[in-house]
């Protein structure tokens, strides 16, 4: 007896309510964007400069006492958060202290860090500083720029690749799905105010890769079926293709999610934000490859007559079966 | 039908075996690491029985490359320094001054008397008393310029002179500045490397980044602060004539003189001549030692030309004080008691033993040509790194088991084939990572876990396709063949797109992110290899043995 998440033969109609699906996606994107505009992202020091200090002590952490110790130093905006994690031992009490970038300092000042460490050692004698990271405002500005370029480049490169391998309608559909995934991911980080640092950019690009993986598999089948069922209309072909690949789509999403969830639960708090972004991306990416990418493809239409030579630039590559 | 040439079979299995062999040392990480360290030490001539024993922990005939652990896993310090390339302009101009002065004095009849004006540090301003002679004066100054070797600037010279009223302004040319910046950064890189090597930590990373930045990563060091003590000091040692005492740092002094404080807090201020008698560049050796009162000191020795200059100066200035200046602070200002001919001496000050040792290291490695400004500094404690490794290990194992069980339940025997391929996949991935000496970071571990989840994708695509082909009632052999054939284009397209993003991440990212992109990218390569070749080989081998009439996928 086999475990089957999806029945052998399915014939769901994915496009009977396509306006609703596009509407939902559109609405979600608007919410994500509004949230981003209104409260912005909770940027980590990678992107806005400053210092984070991770402390650990055997004693219970008294955030108030820490704050009282640091306040006299007049360092501006200081956030202190205690971190709880199932992987911590009994006497592991961990806190994160974030200090804003000090004015007029292009570079980072070790004097600030030393002062904070001394003050905290008075407040809690057994305190250990397990990691101290400082990023100057000069570098953080550049990091934002690089990150934005990286995401844009990835999307652009993919657009070109799919255009060459398929047709421009496919490329647009795939990219629409990618943009949808990226916006929703940034949106949830803004909405939940999860710390957004350099690793999240890596997660974003991985989401781009994963979502694309899914989309390409569906599109590959669409391309095949378009040749197989020359008489059926596009909507029917799309439905057949998605149904045929549905079992694979679900299987892969489940194995990936299994792996990611174990990392989320057991991988420690340092990469939890990163893993969260990827879990969210896998879910959104799976959804978008069916409901966004394919719907856009349906909406744009595809050239059906394969007998005549095409004048689309990419077509000479389109028939190559690797 | 289902046929694979024997040479292909041998090749595929060999790749797997080699991959696993390359990965093997990582399973005995500490042991191999100790053995490698010991072997390196023996090579350097430290050959003790203990070393031999440590080296023997891992046999020579086995591969011994390990995956490097990133700072976030091993603990250590990371610094991003910007070389203040502008600092060099000042000393360059300072060195130009006597030349310009002498050249203009020779033309006294046309340009009249000259006087150096206050100016920005990267230029020299000279006022001439006869502005009519300006053309000639400029000609003379320009005559001092030397050619600069650059790729683009043919005929570019190192200095530029222009007239502003009755003043000549001399500056370094843009071409020279560019060339000088490059030299400065290279020198700084070299000196930082020497200093870190002197202290002797393992596997430091010292890289140039961009035009004027240097990335320094040292595993195992206690804190970024400690690292900065070693590399952050310019260690510009000079011996300057003392003009007299000063009352405050803002005292007005003559051109070519400056006020410097004493290194002791609340100590005295001195007016010294900017142009040093001898500099640290002419030192050949510096060692920590003790003075006659048993206090820590640093003894040094000059090279021949330094020794001659120092000897001449001390001979001519007996009874006068001179200052030993380190990075614009006076360490001590002794009075010259007698002629010092040998070219060696001792620096005393209020040192601790540690400070004198450090200073000796710095003087031996040479001075940095320019100051460093730190743009980024990170310290990761070894405990945090170990915690991350432990958590990552547990998470990877659980992810692995979950996926294995799930695949076996979904595809039965074929699932088990895919599982064997998955295990081989991670093995080969580690083998590749060790082979290229890649650095494993915490996001890199996440990349491996993600690979575990996504690697089965190619197999899922194939198995689903075989299921479909079986429905159209072809024989099992044909179904398997068609399944592989038809799934291939989807597998390639899907993986090429993911690979593109991995490449972009690698190109744009730094540090941990780059570590992630490496495991992700290599994971794609290995998973495509294992899915297309290894599982296929397993299925075909199984099929040949059993010749089943029907198969269930």
Automatic annotation (TrEMBL), chain A:
Gene Ontology CC: one annotated term: plasma membrane
Major localization class: membrane
Residue ranges of the TM segments: 20-38, 143-164, 170-189, 196-213, 249-267, 274-300
InterPro entries, sorted: SecD/SecF_arch_bac, SecD/SecF_bac, SecD/SecF_CS, SecD_SecF_C, SecD_SecF_C_bact, SecF_bac
BP-aspect Gene Ontology terms: intracellular protein transmembrane transport; protein targeting; protein transport by the Sec complex
Residues covered by the Protein export membrane protein SecD/SecF C-terminal domain: 116-301
Keyword set, alphabetical order: Cell membrane, Membrane, Protein transport, Translocation, Transmembrane, Transmembrane helix, Transport
Topological relation to the membrane, as annotated: Multi-pass membrane protein
Coiled coil: none
Signal sequence segment: none
Pfam families assigned to the protein according to its UniProt record, in alphabetical order: Sec_GG, SecD_SecF_C
Molecular function per GO: protein-transporting ATPase activity
Location(s) in or outside the cell: Cell membrane
Domain of life of the source: Bacteria
SUPFAM superfamilies, A to Z: Multidrug efflux transporter AcrB transmembrane domain
Subunit and interaction comment: Forms a complex with SecD. Part of the essential Sec protein translocation apparatus which comprises SecA, SecYEG and auxiliary proteins SecDF-YajC and YidC.
HAMAP family: SecF_B
NCBIfam families: 2A0604s01, transloc_SecF
Function per UniProt: Part of the Sec protein translocase complex. Interacts with the SecYEG preprotein conducting channel. SecDF uses the proton motive force (PMF) to complete protein translocation after the ATP-dependent function of SecA.
The family this protein is said to belong to: In the C-terminal section; belongs to the SecD/SecF family. SecF subfamily.
Name by which UniProt lists this protein: Protein-export membrane protein SecF
From TrEMBL, chain B:
Top-rank taxon, per record: Bacteria
Molecular function via GO: protein-transporting ATPase activity
Localization of this protein: Cell membrane
Residue ranges of every copy of the Protein translocase subunit SecDF P1 domain listed in the record: 185-242
UniProt keyword Transcription, yes or no: no
Transport recorded as keyword: yes
Topology versus the membrane: Multi-pass membrane protein
GO biological process, one term: protein targeting
Domain Protein export membrane protein SecD/SecF C-terminal: 373-542
Family listed: Belongs to the SecD/SecF family. SecD subfamily.
PANTHER family: PROTEIN TRANSLOCASE SUBUNIT SECD, PROTEIN-EXPORT MEMBRANE PROTEIN SEC
Function: Part of the Sec protein translocase complex. Interacts with the SecYEG preprotein conducting channel. SecDF uses the proton motive force (PMF) to complete protein translocation after the ATP-dependent function of SecA.
Subunit architecture: Forms a complex with SecF. Part of the essential Sec protein translocation apparatus which comprises SecA, SecYEG and auxiliary proteins SecDF-YajC and YidC.
Protein name listed in UniProt: Protein translocase subunit SecD
UniProt source species: Ruegeria halocynthiae
